[in-house]
Every structure is written in C-alpha cells, then in structure tokens.
Amino acid sequence: MMWFSYTIDLTLPRDSTPATDHVNGKAGEKRKRQFLDVTTGTLGIGTFKFRRSVADCCTKPYHDDYYLLRWLRARNFNPEAAEKMLREGAAILANSGRRDLDFRTSKKVNYMKDSRSLTFGDKLLSPRVALRAGFFVTPTRTSERQGRIQKISIRTDTWFELYCLPKLGVISRSMKWREKWEVETLNTWEPPEVIKKYYPSGLAGFDKEGAPVVVIPFAGLDMWGMLHSLNKADFIRMTIKMIETYQGIAWEQSKKCGQAAGTVSAIIDMENFNLRQYAWRPAGEVVLSLIQMYEANYPEILKTCYIINAPKIFAIAFSVVKNFLNEYTLNKIKIFKNDPRKYQHLLLQIIDDNQLPKHYGGTMTDPDGDPTCPSKIHPGGKVPKSFYLKNADDKGSSLTPDSFCTIVVKKGEKLKLPYIVAQEGSFLKWDFKTEGHDIKFGVLCKNADEKDTVVIPIHRVTSHTVDEVGVITCPEPATYMVVFDNSYSYLRNKKLHYSIQVTPPIKISMLSDEEVVVKDI
C-alpha cells in the first residue's frame, strides 16, 4: 500500500492583518464577530475552525489569514457557504479510460476529501509520475514496485491547474474555458485596429493600499460600431486580455504592497450613457455574456466599483444587469448620479489625488493639461463607418426606421398595446418619441389570474425633446400592456412614433459552456 498525504501547518502568520469588509444585516455582523475582531484586528475562533475545515485544500504559503477571510467575506461570513464556494471553484474532472490519471469509480473528484482509490495496472499513475507532475505530496512509502496507490490528494491552485493537470490529461472546466479562448497567449495576440483605437479603458494609478485603479469611460463604448466592424469573438478576447492585464498588475502589486493590493478598484463613468444601442440584441448579448464570464472565471478580483455620473435611464439598464450578478459582487458596487460632489470626496478617501485624473477630483492631468488623461485612459468614441465590415448586417436591429410605427393619440384618450410574453426572462423593449408635446407612459402586467400589476407607473415623459428608450425583464409569462396616456390633454392630439419588441431570453452560455466553438461565435 502507498499513501499520499499532506502535512498541514495550522499556525497563523504573525504579520497577517485581516481586512475588514461590509457585511449585510445583523446576522452577518454577528457571524463576522466570530471570525474577526475589527477593533483589534485579531482572529476569532471561527477562523481557526474554518482553517481546519479547508486545511486539505489550503496548503500553499499564500493561503494565509487574508486568503481565508476573502472567501468568508465573499459569503457574508457563512462558513458553510464559504467552504462550498472555495471547493467548487477548485473542482476537477477525472477522465476515465485513458493512459493517465484514472479513478476506479470513473467519478468526478470535486474535493480533496473526496479522494478515491487509484490503480496503475496499465501504468495509469505511478508514484514517480505523480511526484514529477507536481502534486506536492509526501508519500509514506516510496517503493515504485507497489502495485497500488491507496489515495492521492489533488492540489487545486491556479499553478497546479495550469502546469500539473495537463501532464496527466486532467483538466478543469475553468481550464477548458482558458484553453478555448487561448488566454495564456493573449499577451501576444494583436487586436484589430478598431479595438485598439476605440476600446475605452485605462489604468489611472493605484489606490492608497497599492491596488490598481482602472477607469472605464463606458459611454465611449460604441457597441453598434464595434460589432459592425469585427466579430464578437475578437471583442470578447480584448475584454479578457484587459482583465488578465489588470489582474497581473494586481498580482505584482500584492508582492510589493501586501494582499490588499491584489484586487482591482474600478471607476465606471456613465456620463452621456445611451441605452438605445444596448436595446439592440447582439450588443445586449455580448455585455451580459461578458458579465457571466467575469462571474464564472474571475471571482473576488474586484475590490470595489464606483459607477459615477449615472443618468436616470441607467436605472433601467442596471435592473437588467443586476440579475446576472451575485449579491457579493453587487455589495461592492456603489452608484452615484451625475453630481461630482457626491462621489469625488469618496474617491479621494481611497485614492491619492496624484493617482486620480482631475476630471474625477484628483490632480492628475496629461502633459497638455487635459483633465481626463486620454494618454492613460483611452476614451473610446464613435467608430467611423470606414471600419465597418462589408458584410455587416443590420438585420435584427431595433433601431431601423422600418421598425417604427406612427399613430395619433387623440386628446383625452389612451393607447393600450398588449404584448404576450410566453417565456420567463424575456425582454420587453421600447423606443418612442412624440412631436411637439409630451405624453404619459407606463407598463402594466396581467397574469393568468387576470390581475393587473403596475410594472412601470404611468408618468409624464418629455419624449418630444429626447427619445425615450428602455427595457425590462419579464419575470413570468403574462400579457404586458404598454400604455400611452393622453387623457390629461383636452386640447392637443399627440403624434407618436414607437417601436416596441418582445425578445426571448438571452442565452449567455457562449463564454462558459465547454461545448462552445469559439470560431462560430
């Protein structure tokens, strides 16, 4: 018999200073006190218990107090949920019937505690191969003549997944995703010219703890132009490349400034945000797919996210987006309307003024005095039609003139337009304008019980000065009633141009499903 085992050091690093974080509710605060005393920075008995419960999969030197607290904070200091998240993130798939690592039961081994008896009658796995592959184990017996390995504990950190598992033909879902998108070689990939010129993003500097601060002028992203100038796969690759770049910078900063610098702070500027282009289905699909990609493959790299200069229309967009974010990510997002007095002083509390563009309250400018620092933070912009592909197809756009209807809503009357939604999660989109005068607008829902529910209260909109564009998610099959109300006007008819569509739920599996073929996207 041969046993592969670990020697676990349960002592705590002396220089570890656990970070504090926001915890939701009184129950969360009570749980937090079991793990961390925020006044003294000392650990509670709960942290010691948690360390022991995950000791089999937290064996590297960097698996310190800060690392454990990161998982606990991510699950609101619920140790069972934190352990589940940690272990599921480290799950691997064991292939059967190949001349490599083979479990007799041909089952998945998701956790180190779920180890299986192994055989290598067909030289599937020998102690020498296991050790050479980098399992970092200490066998109790070293004779390779033994015909059986009783157990093996599988390391699941990133280094192990990248370099050890492929040697044995074993690969995780995350690794399959990385291989499919060739993440490890993206640093040598040359993006198309249109992305290099018009992809808005940049590293402003570092916060007071050394973490990188990324600024994204979101309104500078012309999704319509981008997706008419290149394929979706290239846009996705560019986004992955940027995330990997910023994550790499954070990793280097953590070596110099400590673990608190190992995450990324983001400032997303929504000034002049236009919802209309995201009512176009291809753009919406890409954005929501990228959000899912981030959630599935880059957990806990976000330190905090400030969404600033958000117009009122942003609330509609965010009501859709937040359905694809888990609550732990949502807790890190802070949203501010278009009022610099509300957010600039908060940014300066965490970022030194010389690391923040003057446009956002700091002192940093470009050499020519530009306060937005375009030399560091690419502003993006509208993509010229000269970049558009010759076979670019406008089919499916909700923005074409042909998709609009024109009608006169007479004085003192209402126009009610019913739309039947058959699938849960479908989208109801609208784009309308009136000539000369405003009108009231709202959305009602009638379910199977024939009861009306107000989805959007009927309210007055200035659709004669700016187009009204919006979208809602339909949580259940029902009949949705779009209402244009002119009953308050006794003198004027209202000429209305509108486009209303119901689109099916977006399938956002294209970035995470291992069956996807990248070239077909």
From TrEMBL:
<protein>
    <recommendedName>
        <fullName>SEC14-like protein 2</fullName>
    </recommendedName>
</protein>
<feature type="domain" description="GOLD">
    <location>
        <begin position="385"/>
        <end position="502"/>
    </location>
</feature>
<dbReference type="InterPro" id="IPR036273">
    <property type="entry name" value="CRAL/TRIO_N_dom_sf"/>
</dbReference>
<dbReference type="InterPro" id="IPR001251">
    <property type="entry name" value="CRAL-TRIO_dom"/>
</dbReference>
<dbReference type="InterPro" id="IPR009038">
    <property type="entry name" value="GOLD_dom"/>
</dbReference>
<dbReference type="GO" id="GO:0005737">
    <property type="term" value="C:cytoplasm"/>
</dbReference>
<feature type="domain" description="CRAL-TRIO">
    <location>
        <begin position="191"/>
        <end position="368"/>
    </location>
</feature>
<dbReference type="InterPro" id="IPR036598">
    <property type="entry name" value="GOLD_dom_sf"/>
</dbReference>
<dbReference type="InterPro" id="IPR011074">
    <property type="entry name" value="CRAL/TRIO_N_dom"/>
</dbReference>
<dbReference type="Pfam" id="PF03765">
    <property type="entry name" value="CRAL_TRIO_N"/>
</dbReference>
<dbReference type="InterPro" id="IPR051064">
    <property type="entry name" value="SEC14/CRAL-TRIO_domain"/>
</dbReference>
<dbReference type="InterPro" id="IPR036865">
    <property type="entry name" value="CRAL-TRIO_dom_sf"/>
</dbReference>
<dbReference type="Pfam" id="PF00650">
    <property type="entry name" value="CRAL_TRIO"/>
</dbReference>
